[in-house]
Structures are given as C-alpha cells and as structure tokens.
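Hi R.,

Here's the chain you asked about this morning:
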Amino acid sequence: MTSISRACRSALALAALAGALCGALPAFAQSPAYMNCGELWYARNEIYAQNGYCFETARARAAFGPGCFPPFGQLSRGERATVNEIQAWERRKGC
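And the predicted structure, written out as tokens:
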C-alpha cells in the first residue's frame, strides 16, 4: 500500500474545507460547542483517520476503514490541539 504524504493529506483537508464552504459540511467545520456526542466522536476520529491511525473498534472501522498508513495516527501540534478541544467538549457534554 502506498502512503499519502502529509502535504497530500493537507491538500485533501483543504479540499474538504472548500466543500464545506459549498455546502458539504465536514464534521469539524462547525464549532464543537454546537456538536452532539456523535458528531464530536466523528470529528475527533476523522483527524486520526487522516493520519493513518489503525482503528480497532467496529464503529471506527465501519466509519473510516482500517486506516494503518504512516504516520500511523501521529498528529501535528495543531491537530493535537484540535483533538484536545474536541475531547474537552466530549467531557463537558458527558459523552
């Protein structure tokens, strides 16, 4: 399996953002304050999926596939901050 470079993943993320502006709203395009538990879960795991995380739960595999490509879920500083924010909202909402 070929891996997707970090630059390509960034370009895909920008394409998703462009889609959001045109009506196809990705999970984290809205503020986590207004997201329900399912949307928060999806937004958080979508970040890991874009970074090749190897999902183990049936729910995550059904949503994102098995993943597993370099960097195997390693997040950038900005991605980590976003995940931390989402997790804070999950705790706040009792997810």
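The CA atoms of residues 36 and 93 lie 8 Å apart.

Let me know if you need anything else.
M.
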